[in-house]
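Table S4 entry, Alcohol oxidase.
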Amino acid sequence: MRFLGTTLASLAALALAGATAVPTANLKRHVSQLRNSYDFVIVGGGTTGLTVANRLTGALPSKNTLVIEYGDVHFAPGLFDPPTNWITPHPDAAPTWDFLSLPNPEMGNRTAFVQAGQVVGGSSAVNGMFFDRGSHLDHDAWADVAGSNWNWDSIFPYFRKAVTFTEPPSAIAQRYNYTWDVSAYGGAGPIYSTFPPFQWADQAVLDKAWREMGIRPATECAGGDKEGICWVPASQHPVTGRRSHAGLGHYADVPPRANYHLLVNHQVVRVLYPNGPKSGPPLVEVRSLVDNQLFNMTVSGEVIMAAGVFHTPTVLQRSGIGPSSFLNDAGIAVVLDLPGVGSNLQDHAGPPVTWNYSQPYEYFPLPSEMARNASFKAEATAAFDQPTAHGPYTLAGGNSAIYVSLPHITAQYKDITKKIRRMATDGTAASYLPPDIRSNAAMIAGYKQQLLVLAELLENPSAPSLETPWTSSEPPGRAWAFLLHPLSRGTVRLNLTDHLAQPLLDYRAGSNPIDFDIHLAQVRFLRGLFNTPTMQQHGATEIGPGATVAADDQALRKYIKEQTYLSFFHPCCTAAMMPKPKGGVIGPDLKVHGAKGLRVVDMSIMPFLPAAHLSATAYAVAEKAADIIIGDWN
């Protein structure tokens, strides 16, 4: 059992992270504590930034690295740790950025709410701990668009390297019918994953219904094949049941290194090229959040942007790197005209299918017990606090989901992909792009290529286009229809009235009308639940959308507009890895086109969303990026 040797160290790290002040040698809070210059400056101490910092400082001991983080060290409880009820906010949760998008006209002017971690560890410290990976087809499609070696075969070793997976005890595996293939893991990384020793009593209800709909169970979905019913591990420690995140695995668990400094409570304002972008690496302009003091940090090697999907493009735009038309409107001198900076925004979204039951629903325990049964909750808390945690509080947000391809959802899938190809070739694709890049030849060319590659992906019966996660079907039941590969594209732009304020997000969900074709097909597919023997046995009574609404395209479209959750907190793609003539921001080496000494390493680099929550992908991207950078500097 690989984890036993590291259990005491991780428990110590947990205690360390819960302290109000962390007495580590590399934590800095003021410019006076810093060196005059650094070989590497990493902008953002989140999932990718800390991963890269850990690997660089370990492999290049003669190089000094500074990580600059807006937030601070903070205890990061799991999504569902005591004393919460089921999926209620934790009183000690780490701070988050809370974004509200601009009104979305195609969705009835509703807004998207999305969060990101404002803490050492970033979003890995606040996410749902659902630790899945995309299909190998997603990553091969990424490589097709990027013209790169970022395909599945090249990144799969880094998925393995990033994590230590612990197999559940046989008794637990048999109780819940967990399945896995250890060959998909095999690494010894600093991030832990496992299956919890608990599931709600009715978890198997939907599992059985999905099978009755013809969805096959998959033994393992982390090895590249991902179509069917999947068990998904959580990013948690196998003994303590606690959240495993970058703030622990790539920071608190790392012995202090003289070449590794972490500066907290500071904002990177911009990167500066006094002699032009070919003269890099740039200076880094930094603002203290304590006294508002500004200072420049000298860099001798390179600057690595890891500030996340929203803040990486924000910093670049403040630096004069972005769409020239927008920079002119913002009154910022253009250093590099890269229209892809802050463009290409995507996120998973979708509406639910909902129901109630007319027959008695007699299972124990169910999530509602946490709120209505004080003795049960007390027992659950005691179980979680045992030396080996067990019971409901080890569950996080759940571990099961279905992933279904478009050919398995609708017989009309080729009609949908034909429409996608037509708009990519007849000149209409550009009309669905954001207005400020709609006439940009590079952005149009890149979008057309994305559409053609996505059409191929959506036609593949092994490539998921729908995800529905679940952990219980306690009434009222709800099955979400995640649109895994949206065609609509949004933007992240500086606030024109205050460049240091949070950026403005324009999600533009549904701006490409073919997304609605897929939404319609997915909702109708999920309604097949109500025809299964299992759901009929329980007397499932549909609440939404209902048979009458589902039978009419316009009525169902209205339901989708009113019920779609516009963000499942998986934003991506705002500094995409694509060739510059196709609107790309970075190349396969992660270097910003035309900017010497500047790279990007976070979830903004993907050209489009994979069929996955993004935490495991972020670690894999960062691990591969670290190897690329280390290789260059060795």
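DSSP finds 18 helices and 23 strands in the chain.
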